[in-house]
Design a protein that fits this description.
Blueprint lengths: L2 H22 L2 H4 L10 H20 L4 H14 L1 H10 L5 H27 L3
Helix pairs in contact: 1-3, 1-6, 3-4, 4-6, 5-6
């Protein structure tokens, strides 16, 4: 197995775990759904979980890896507002929780880059 394949498998694992968490334990994610989105936070939580599971499945299959990884990069960029909302909402929490919330913000950049690189490195 190549380093590229290992990286893709790790990305699949991350997305699958996150997707499962959104579906199995949605309450924690409901709170960070931006209020400006139409519909219920639970619907957005479940939809994002299903999207993560579908992206994981797409990246797992070499034939669909390129398109799915590019879509994952877009997805990671698209959920950034939820992380901003979490950081804002947690501004009065104890320092460790506040640090966790603010620490998530710069982590989106490597996730976007990782998914984009996985798409670029996928075999055609």
């Amino acid at each position: 197995m190549t380093a590229t394949d290992r990286s893709a498998r790790l990305l699949v694992g991350l997305l699958a775990a996150a997707g499962a968490a959104h579906v199995v334990a949605p309450r924690q994610f409901d709170a960070i759904v931006p209020r400006t989105l139409p519909g219920s936070p639970r619907a957005w939580t479940h939809a994002s979980g299903v999207a993560e599971l579908l992206l994981a499945a797409g990246i797992a299959v070499p034939r669909t890896r390129r398109a799915s990884a590019v879509a994952a990069a877009c997805f990671f960029a698209g959920v950034f507002p939820a992380n901003v909302k979490m950081a804002y909402d947690w501004r009065h929490k104890p320092a460790p929780l506040k640090a966790l919330a603010w620490g998530r913000l710069p982590l989106q950049v490597p996730l976007v880059l990782w998914a984009a690189r996985t798409g670029r490195e996928a075999t055609r």
